[in-house]
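Format notes (please read before filing issues)

Several people have asked whether sequences and structure tokens are stored in separate files. They are not. Every record keeps both together, in the order shown below: the sequence lines, then the token lines. Line labels are part of the format and must not be stripped during preprocessing.
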Amino acid sequence: MAHSSNNSNYSVVPEATDALNKFKYEVASEVGVNLKEGYNGDISSRDAGRIGGNMVKKLIQQAENQMIGK
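Then the structure lines:
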């Protein structure tokens, strides 16, 4: 998918931005990482990876459940 910006953090579905942010904070809380509103560049790469990895895992589970009609 081509995008004119060099920023890889754009939303494919801009309307989903708020829901994804909420989801990010929920997952961070589940894995014990305290995110604050705004800048979080001071968290460790390991913690950021735990948040992102768990988000992907949950999104894949949700997609699989939808595919089998759950």
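For reference, the curators noted about this record: Residues 14-34+43-67 form one domain. The first helix runs from residue 17 to 30.
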